[in-house]
Design a protein that fits this description.
Blueprint lengths: L1 E6 L9 E6 L8 E6 L5 E6 L5 E7 L2 E4 L12 E7 L4 E7 L6 E7 L2
Antiparallel strand pairs: 1-2, 3-4, 4-5, 5-6, 7-8, 8-9
């Protein structure tokens, strides 16, 4: 997975500079960045080693799996982060293989 980071350049004539960054995965074969906030915190989802999607937070060069199941033994758990605001509040979706209802997840980062 690669993300494009835009660094603001001051001045009327300056063109924005872009940098491609390989974010990696949380152990699976693919990952997807969904949003980035003004602090450079990136959220999205990545396949884990078992091939299940888990939401991640990427900051300061490190991808962290924050989408694990709160239910012991739940191998079917999937989660996706869709967005992050400038207060570092993450919103996404999670679904369990044990509980058949999906639900919205909102997390804060202090």
């Amino acid at each position: 997975l690669c993300a494009i980071l835009i660094a603001p350049i001051h001045g009327a004539m300056a063109a924005p500079k872009y940098e491609f960054v390989d974010l990696g995965t949380i152990g699976g074969s693919e990952s997807y960045a969904e949003d980035v906030n003004e602090h450079g915190v990136i959220v999205g989802f990545s396949a884990n080693p078992e091939g299940r999607d888990h939401m991640f937070v990427y900051y300061d060069g490190r991808m962290t799996d924050v989408g694990g199941s709160p239910l012991p033994g739940d191998k079917e758990w999937t989660s996706v982060a869709f967005g992050i605001n400038d207060s570092n509040i993450v919103v996404g979706y999670a679904r369990s293989g044990i509980i058949l209802d999906g639900h919205c997840e909102v997390m804060g980062r202090g």
